[in-house]
Amino acid sequence: MAAIKAARRVEVNAKNNQIVELDYVDKGISIQIQTLTSLTLSHNKLTAVPAGIAELLNLEMLNLWNNRIEELPTSISSLPKLRVLNLGMNRLWTLPRGFGSFPCLEVLDLTYNNLSEKSLPGNFFMLESLRALYLADNDFEMLPQDIRHFKNLQILVLRDNDLVYLPKEIGELGRNLNLSGDKQVFRLDNNPWVPPIVEQLTVGIPQLLTYLASETYK
């Protein structure tokens, strides 16, 4: 995978659970481990993800946090076992066609990018296995009604966007979102909300979700 040669530090975890660190990958070391289950390429200066990433058929976790990636190959969504994908703190402005085809993706982190509702491909909301979605610090002004298809979603972070209102359908997610305990799993702060949503937020998230699902909210 030629594009990975730009990375200075790679951390891999194979099926035997032994951690291997490959330094100075740019000196010609390449990754060809079919049994690879975990790959961390965070804090490098990668600008692209090679299409050959799809050859890592046993990959379950891919961490690309804090790079300079602007777009992804369409092949990435064909990873059959990927459960955790961290693309936070990059320069993504769009997601590739077919991105919603991951068969078992559970955690998707898109924090700190340049994404908006226009960046999402048509099948994005077909990620039926998704349990956690992080969209903080992007450029979303609205959320599509199709968010109701995330039936298994337990964590949703939308803070620091340009959101004014929420689709009524998001109220349907309230039964699955884990709102118990101190851990904030539904983050909406730092958005320019319309007054009715602001009023409900001052009361609490459970009340907001009830309001969104009610006939009062249009």
Would you give an account of this structure?
The protein has 218 residues and is mainly β. It is built from 2 helices and 9 strands, in the order βββββββββαα. A 9-stranded mixed beta sheet has the order 2-1-3-4-5-6-7-8-9, with no helix packed on it. It is elongated and about 55 Å long. The N and C termini lie far apart (50 Å).
Range of helix content: under 10%
Helix segment tally: 2
Oligomeric state as shown:
single chain
Placed side by side, the strands forming the largest sheet appear as: 2-1-3-4-5-6-7-8-9
Label the structural class: mainly beta
Average pLDDT taken over every residue: 84
Series of H and E elements: EEEEEEEEEHH
**Residue runs with pLDDT of under 50 for 5 or more positions:** 2-9, 14-27
Q: Specify the overall morphology.
A: elongated
**Backbone CA Rg:** 19 Å
Q: Kindly estimate the percentage of residues that lie in beta strands according to DSSP.
A: 5-15%
* N- and C-termini, Cα separation: 50 Å
Total beta-strand segments? 9
* Biggest beta-sheet profile: 9 strands, mixed
